[in-house]
Design goal:
- The protein is 16% helix and 43% strand.
- It is α+β, with helices and mostly antiparallel strands and 300 residues long.
- It has a domain of 195 residues.
- It is globular.
Length: 300
Amino acid sequence: MKINRYLLIAGLGMALAGAIFVGCKKSDNTTTNNPNDITAAQDDNNANFAVQDTKNVADGAAKSQAVERLANAPCAHISFHKDTINHTSDSLIDINFGSSPCLCLDNRYRSGHILVWYAGVHCFTVNGDSTVMGFNGYSFGNSPSSMIGVSGTRTLINLGTDTGNGLYSWKFHAALTLTYPGNGGTATWNSTRTIALTSYMGTNYFMVTGGANGTCRSGATYTITINNSYPLYIQPPLCVHFNYMSTPCAFIEAGELTITVSTFSYPIYVSFGSGNAMPPVCESKATATINGVAYNFTQP
């Protein structure tokens, strides 16, 4: 497991989609305007996937692992452009899948360009370094007829080290628009998160605050807000642990957040793992509470 993956998504997207899905499907019909509308979950999940997948592709290209990460896509072409701007090293990677849907070995189709700008020494552990991703005609899908277009940008900035514990923190921001095929409409997705590396009882965790908001294809709007008093805790990969005997956890281990959807009459309160209790516990359980009723679900 790589540090970049955890910094980018921090385990959030799929779990949020699961919580919204549980809320929409299990809540009483009288408490919602449209209980079967799960487009908020689907659009949030698609946006999270698009950001993480393109980041994985870009990381592979930057590390010359294109054959492995791009799944031997015969149409993928990678070009590097290096320059110095204001005495700072700056590079652009253009990953071009061509104008027609290209089938990769992960059984997904991709087309268009993923554009990545690296400012600095290209290391996520250097204060001030940033990475900005953009798109030019980029789309992905499970078939040539189901391609979802992606436009917008996402940015990851190293905020430096905390003077108290000497550990790093990062700022993540994304503003994406998804365009669905067959006049299926568009969805917007915005997310701002701070990911701070913190230590608790000799084990390092990523502590995540912030949230996301968007407008679904259906026209519904939604917000996702992490509780600042009980932020999300996720174990990072071994390379950034103080305790190298620890095993990274695949789930959100602790923390709480609130989801609101405009077509849903009640907010959804979600508690992960140990909730607001410390220390965090590595387990897949989570609970969504709607109008005083708790529904348990498993993090993907």
